[in-house]
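Risk register update: the risk of archive-format incompatibility is retired. Evidence:
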Amino acid sequence: MTQCDRIIQYIRERGGITTAQAFTDLGITRLSGRIFDLRQKGIPIMAETKVGKNRYGEKIRFTEYKIQEKKA
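Archived output:
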């Protein structure tokens, strides 16, 4: 199974993936590179900027990638 296959499976099972999840759960260090590859293959990946807090309680922004649903 390729890294791209793992990412697609992860997104389908959990609804989305962040860089931290890709590294921790899948061992993928360049999520943005694999997202680029998936988009080049025609997979409709959308990026959503989210806001959270880091371990120090500071406000941070991060990206969650999802597969864009087809509209009826």
